[in-house]
Write a structure and sequence with these properties.
With 125 residues, the chain is α+β, with helices and mostly antiparallel strands. The protein has helices at residues 14-22, 24-32, 39-46, 50-62, 110-124, and strands at 66-71, 79-84, 88-93, 99-104. Helices cover 43% and strands 19% of the residues.
């Protein structure tokens, strides 16, 4: 799922959010992700095997709970860093009695938005 990193307006999928929050490993990642980390840093910090870490990071990203950014390195070996992309999760009823989810997003600086956009462009090329 490719999400416009500048808009922040795309509503998350309710089931994706519920699935991610129901997963103990995903909750552990959220708990330890107090600053942007690479997958290997997340794996080490949370004591989760690398293969599982990648699956959980994908699950959290698909649910719009994490954002990916690209760390540009001078040696050309760029790294993907993951950061929390929500402050609150609200589940409520719509006018037609269906469940709906909304995420309160943190305020991001222009350089963070540009880094997110660059990361999305790299994925598409």
């Amino acid at each position: 799922m490719v999400r416009d990193p500048l808009s922040g307006d795309d509503p998350p999928d309710l089931q994706s959010v519920l699935d991610a929050l129901d997963d103990p490993d995903c909750r552990t990642i959220i708990q330890h992700l107090d600053e942007p980390m690479t997958a290997s840093e997340v794996s080490e910090e949370c004591d989760i095997p690398m293969s599982t870490t990648y699956r959980k990071l994908d699950l959290l990203t698909e649910a719009s709970l994490l954002a990916e950014g690209t760390e540009i390195r001078p040696d050309g070996h760029h790294a993907t860093r993951y950061r929390l992309d929500f402050e609150t999760v609200e589940i409520g009823l719509t006018d037609d009695q269906k469940l709906d989810v909304s995420l309160g997003r943190p305020t991001r600086a222009a350089d963070e938005r540009l880094a997110s956009l660059w990361g999305e462009v790299r994925k598409e090329t």
